[in-house]
Amino acid sequence: MSQRSFETRSGDVKSRNYDAVASFYELLANAYSFGLIRRAKMIEFKYLKPGQRVLYLGVGSGEEAVAAARKGLEVTALDLSSAMIERLRARLARKGLSAELIVGDALLHQPREAYDAVCGNYFFNVFGPADMPLVLRHAIGLVKPGGRLMVADMAPPPGGLRGLLTWSYLKFGLSFFWLLRLASQHPIYDFRLYGEREGLTTEAVRDFGLRKLGMPLYRTVVMRRPETA
Ligand SMILES: C[S@@+](CC[C@H](N)C(=O)[O-])C[C@H]1O[C@@H](n2cnc3c(N)ncnc32)[C@H](O)[C@@H]1O
């Protein structure tokens, strides 16, 4: 397994706090969402083929990166938190799988070659409205022409009472993260709009939640970079 370190902004508060929750973050997220957070990430495999190069930004302890390595993808996984990357390293080792692991800031990642796909799962929402578009733009720049950017995250709430209930549920989670200083307070982003504004084409939008009640809670957006970038 290759593991190289990367420049970090030492003392970054998000890194320190994610270090503190590394051992239980994924468990908590999946319990809070009744497993929907995981399902929204795993749907991305529908759009990935063995042998493709995939980058996971803000990978956390990386359940989806482990699954990707098991499916024969060439995985690069990056996170600012060394504790998160350490957990992922141990997970991969236990299963005899390999991946390139990077402790570093997503904004500083400059690979030699662009990726077939870049996934930012519950990652872009740690940034406030001033920074998020910059991080998203950088992520798009890491996708090769014709490749995919995939974002699993909170779904933008619909209008009316159902929207209010959805918003309250999602805001409760976001506020909990904000209290722990793991995320900033901000509106729930519509990543499809942000991606299209950057010239991406939307290939698929998959919602997860109380669909029969018209209340999507989590959403995976699959977007493509034009062939001629
Ligand atoms: C909400 S967690 C999501 C983790 C994982 N993708 C998941 O779905 O379980 C956000 C992750 O982004 C990482 N992170 C925050 N700022 C970052 C940055 N500037 N560069 C890379 N990773 C960052 C945190 O350390 C944390 O692991």
TrEMBL record:
Q: Does the keyword Methyltransferase apply?
A: yes
Q: Which SUPFAM superfamilies does the UniProt record give?
A: S-adenosyl-L-methionine-dependent methyltransferases
One record GO biological process: methylation
**Ranges for domain Methyltransferase:** 54-147
Q: Which UniProt keywords apply?
A: Methyltransferase, Transferase
Q: Pfam family example for this protein?
A: Methyltransf_25
Q: What Gene3D superfamilies does this protein map onto?
A: Vaccinia Virus protein VP39 (3.40.50.150)
Q: Which InterPro entries match?
A: CFA/CMAS (IPR050723), Methyltransf_25 (IPR041698), SAM-dependent_MTases_sf (IPR029063)
Q: What is this protein called?
A: Methyltransferase domain-containing protein
